[in-house]
Design goal:
0% strand, mainly alpha, 361 residues
């Protein structure tokens, strides 16, 4: 319907632009409560197309469209508040409506928000936020269609061709492309490079994706340092990446890994109490963890009881110490799931949970 209504207001090779006809159709749609018609009618009054400019009526129709959640109405209300068209200029209200429109993926709203964050208009100035928003806009260009083309090539088994596209998009800064290129290198699914280079190239791309805030990539970087894939084994560096993923990105996998490393004293002081704390955090964070976390806590309880026996604690022999009061073993929320289905929306390749840190099989 939107296309049909806009044909006369904007014109195209098949239909000549006609303000009078556009106004008639927008009015008919608006009278029936259609938000597209309301927003279109608001545009006619805002710019004086086929009618006299009337900011009050434009504001009225945009408000009606916004009440029904229509993104164009939200955007135009933000523009009216930003420029003070028919209303008192109010940057905070402009931010509010730009935020609403950006949540629906409206590129102009995202761009306007980026400019406001860059200049500190109506919000505290934040160059980091502005860059993130500008990046979001840039990644919605026509070239973004190459991302889905690469995914379709991968789905059809043309892995090398997909990797070439992913590598190109990864250089342009697409986090999904960086992650997918890393995944292909990690699984050694390409014949374009020597097998000895795979883990090194995968680590480079995982690092790039992690720098953009992708929590799975951050955990992957930690895994590579833990196992020595594409780099030397470095437990301290692995732990630092797991800690970033745990503290900043709330990744349950990273919490579980930190618990294991505290339990074994790998890259940090051995501390079974901190180990248990991280295991508990993992169980509370992820809905996929009952079996691995319960097993880990069971092993921890067994280890703790053996330590008490070794120390010759007299209370254990008299039965006055209950280990379950210190190490609670009960079904907890689970942790490692199987391979997820591919996200067809963004074209991210499927990838499953890695094995927790520990001896390689």
């Amino acid at each position: 319907m939107r296309v049909c209504l806009q044909m006369y207001s904007e014109g195209n090779p098949a239909v000549k632009q006609d303000n009078a006809t556009a106004l008639r159709y927008f009015t008919m749609a608006a009278e029936k409560g259609n938000p597209i018609g309301q927003a279109g009618l608001g545009m006619m009054y805002l710019h004086g197309k086929g009618v006299e400019k009337d900011y009050a009526k434009a504001f009225k129709y945009f408000s009606q469209a916004t009440e029904q959640g229509w993104v164009d109405g939200q955007l135009q209300l933000g523009i009216m508040y930003y420029n003070g068209l028919g209303v008192r200029r109010d940057y905070k209200m402009a931010v509010k409506y730009f935020n609403l429109a950006s949540q629906s993926g409206h590129v102009l709203a995202i761009f306007n928000l980026a400019q406001m964050h860059a200049t500190g208009t109506g919000v505290l100035r934040s160059c980091n936020t502005a860059v993130e928003l500008f990046k979001n806009v840039a990644e919605r260009g026509r070239w973004s269609s190459e991302l889905m083309r690469a995914f379709h090539l991968y789905s059809k088994g043309a892995t090398d061709a997909a990797l070439v596209l992913y590598a190109l998009l990864a250089e342009l800064g697409y986090e999904v492309a960086q992650s997918n290129a890393a995944y292909i290198f990690e699984q050694k699914q390409t014949s374009l490079f020597n097998e000895s280079e795979m883990f090194t190239r995968a680590l480079v791309n995982w690092n790039r994706a992690a720098a953009q805030g992708y929590h799975v990539a951050r955990v992957k970087v930690g895994d590579y340092y833990y196992y020595g894939h594409g780099t030397r084994i470095d437990f301290e560096t692995a732990a630092s990446h797991y800690r970033l993923a745990s503290d900043q990105l709330h990744n349950a996998q990273a919490m579980f890994n930190l618990g294991y490393m505290h339990e074994q004293g790998l890259g940090m002081k051995r501390d079974i109490h901190l180990a248990k704390r991280y295991y508990d955090l993992a169980s509370e964070t992820s809905p996929d963890a009952s079996v691995p976390v319960a097993l880990a806590l069971g092993k921890l309880a067994l280890y703790y009881s053996v330590e008490l026996v070794k120390r010759g604690v007299s209370e254990v022999s008299r039965g006055t110490v209950r280990l379950t009061s210190t190490i609670r073993v009960f079904p907890i929320v689970s942790y490692r799931a199987g391979i997820k289905h591919p996200d067809l929306t963004c074209g991210r390749l499927p990838r499953g949970w890695d094995q927790p840190p520990g001896p390689l099989p």
